[in-house]
Amino acid sequence: MTVSIDMGLSDRGAPALMDLEELLATRLLVQGNSGSGKSHLLRRLIEGSAQWVQQVIIDPEGDFVTLSDRFGHSVVEGAGYSDGEILQIASRIREHRISVVLNLEGLDADAQMRCAAIFLNGLFDAPRDHWYPALVVVDEAQIFAPAVAGEVSDDARRASLGAMTNLMCRGRKRGLAGVIATQRLAKLAKNVAAEASNFLMGRTFLDIDMARAADLLGMDRRQAETIRDLERGHFLALGPALSRRPMPIRIGAVETSARTGSPKLIPLPSTPPADAQTLLFEPMAEPAPPPPPPPPPPSANELLRTFAKPVFGERAAEQPSRPMLSTEEREAVIANVLREIVEDADAAFRSPALLFQDFGVRCRMHGLSDSMVDLPAFRKRLSLARAGIFDPAADERFAPAIALAEELPEDMQGMFLMIARAALHGEACPSDDRIAAVYGTHSPGRVRRLLAYLEQNGMLAQRIDMRGDRRIAVPRLGWTTGPGGQKAGDAPRTAPLPFARDDAADGGTLL
């Protein structure tokens, strides 16, 4: 299922759409001088994708905490927790798929880098079962991945740079899609910027930044001059999730706003000079008592408990009540959704984590808000669905095959179960192309190697007759498929029926 985020308008007046799934696979870099509209662009992207994907925002200035009121993001105050608590919070975020804003406001540069490094490492080191797709948005990325050493400690800089490099270079396999924004490309480490395949370039003036931006966009030096003339909120877009050629776009409006905005001119007070002297040097009054200290941030345990709740704060009262589905109705919806996913031609070549998110969206579209199926359970149901089994309890005879498949790696279970199902019912042996589609590969040669592996481990036994028809048996269950061609177009052939001569008759007698 393709999800497109409306980022605004292109120079031709058409909607500028960003392919969210492509963004998750290819990452995004946003560059522009202060005041060019980077934060506005990020907010547009976050608001447009909030209902589709988990979001983790690293916010050094506290600009994005207002998302919590409208979209339910949980705010993690980085200054209020220890290193161990930040690590544990990051792990819980991936486990429960909670969208959060890590607010680093109030920390000095060294502490911001150290906190962000611990937090990103916690996201990166999550167990494989928690590798759900997530957008990781890092504003002012040059703070956390500087090109050169600055006034911060070497330990903090190395830790932060390493975490940012992991996010951009190796995060995709773990479901983490980096979206980084920077004021100057020259200040951002090259190995971090180079991993992005999508670019949104805003207004910039320095020649070195214009040259790097033009190089990333594939523009010559003369074309690069247009970057200097961009208005606020206007960007040049390029990348597989945006446009195959540099395309000017104007970012659309947003629903939320930052706590601080751009400075506005207001008239100076008309105070006569004498009154001004009096105001400055009149006898000092007793200092006012200090304001009460702000309430302490919630403890780590309290914050982690909130992550396990499906709805935050007052939003729970706003949720419309829906009738509870019975177990049979829930299973029927899950079966229909799995059938839709398997029938999608592209589903075989997408990761289980992406398909799990698609599964959740499709369930909600069918009126099932909570399928009660987590990622490990979904992977097992997906393997069964790819084998044509949408209700595991429907046929008790197939239970031994399901138990036997547990001994195999997860990616091989679907193809094994499909063969076992054909063997149970005596159906024609699946072709190499059909097995390849279930496994998620275009290579018949790889299928043959997989079948050989299963045969060496005693899970399957192949027999190819003189006509080239193949039968596959499951020795441990005593099941065997019917004959079938190895190629997709081959029809199974049967042997000619033998005749014996009857001496007492002129014709043949069928044996």
What is the averaged pLDDT score?
A: 81
Q: How many extended strands?
A: 16
Strand order in the sheet with the most strands: 2-1-11-10-9-3-8-7-4-6-5
- Runs in which pLDDT lies below 50 for 5 or more consecutive residues are 311-317, 490-511
CATH topology of the largest domain, anyone? Rossmann fold
Largest sheet descriptor: 11 strands, mixed
What's the overall geometry?
A: elongated
* The number of domains: 3
How many helices in DSSP terms?
20
What radius of gyration results from the CA coordinates?
A: 30 Å
CATH superfamily of the largest domain: P-loop containing nucleotide triphosphate hydrolases
Determine the N-to-C terminus distance.
56 Å
So, CATH architecture of the largest domain? Answer: 3-Layer(aba) Sandwich
GO molecular function: ATP binding
Keywords: ATP-binding, Nucleotide-binding
Domain Helicase HerA central: 10-77
InterPro entries: ATPase_Atu1862_pred, HerA-like, HerA_central, P-loop_NTPase
